[in-house]
Amino acid sequence: MTTSPIESWDEIAEWWRSEVADDPLFDEQVRPLLDELLPREVDYALDLGCGEGRLLPLLARRADVAVGVEEAPRLARWAVERGPVVRAILPRLDWVRDGTIALAVAVYVLDLLDDAGTFFVETARVVRPGGFLVVVVNHPVFTPDDAAPVVDADGEVLWRWGGYFATGVSDQPAGERTVRFHHRPLGVLLTEAAQAGWCLETLVEVPLGPGTVARHPGYRGQEQIPRILAVRWRRTDSRNPPGTPM
Question: For a tag on the chain, would you pick the N or C end, based on fewer CB atoms within 10 A?
């Protein structure tokens, strides 16, 4: 059966909600990463690409006000049951005033955007100096279209990097449709963030956890291959606005 890429996440909303409901990835790995990287107390926080709002209760425990940002109407209606939500199209944040946010968070969103540079510039604009950007995303080692596991003669699972050093896209199955992912080498991501005014504080690389591997037996043997990248940046001084050489 031929599948076609989605134009809106609402087209696969029911499939997505059933996937995350049974997937141990969030509780087993994403939540501990966020516990490590999120600041303890802030006033205003944005959950960029909040989906069905799964992260909003966690952010609400760290921020006086935590607001989700979601483009898809159906997902936004589900998310509003967990917290306030603004419908908007990322990476633009034109509706947010400069320097009004203390924390921006994006979980499994950045590699869905075709313009990472604007994402970093816009978040640097709305987050005040000293504020934070926390991103969790598929590890760039995993996202090249032709990357794949390789089993050697001894049965060890190795990783073929494929076209890692070039940017590109791949369409991955999502129920009966496909979702387009954008691959960028790690150096490209970190450089674009730095040029926008973000100062790297913490970078964490982890493989898939045992719960996810048990749910997807095809991942067995890949426990030492990077699969998740989590990063925390701090906004640099306002005297160095985005794009200005320091």
Answer: N
Kindly state whether residue 77 falls inside one of the protein's structural domains: yes
Instruction: Return mean pLDDT, the chain.
Output: 92
Q: For residue 145, tell me if it sits in a domain.
A: no
Domain range holding 188? 9-139+183-235
In a domain, 229, yes or no: yes
Query: What crossing angle do the helices spanning 116-126 and 186-195 adopt, rounded to 10°?
Result: 40
What is d(CA 244, CA 237) in angstroms, rounded to the nearest whole number?
11
User: Which CATH number fits the domain that encloses residue 67?
Assistant: 3.40.50.150
Residue at 147 is within a domain = no
The answer, yes or no, to whether the previous bond of 226 is cis (omega within 30 of 0) is no
- Structure confidence at residue 246 (pLDDT): 40
* Average pLDDT of the residues in 50-75: 96
- Strand ranges for 49-174 from DSSP E: 63-70, 85-87, 101-107, 127-138, 148-151, 157-160, 168-174
The CA distance from 30 to 181, in Å, is 19
DSSP-derived secondary structure letter, 12 = G
Q: Check whether 8 has a pLDDT greater than 80.
A: yes
CA distances from 146 to 72, 175, 189 (A): 30, 21, 20
**Which residue matches tokens 């791949």?**
170
Provide the domain count of the chain: 1
Partners of 231 in beta bridges:
135, 203
For residues 11 and 35, give the distance between their C-alpha atoms in angstroms, rounded to a whole number.
Answer: 32
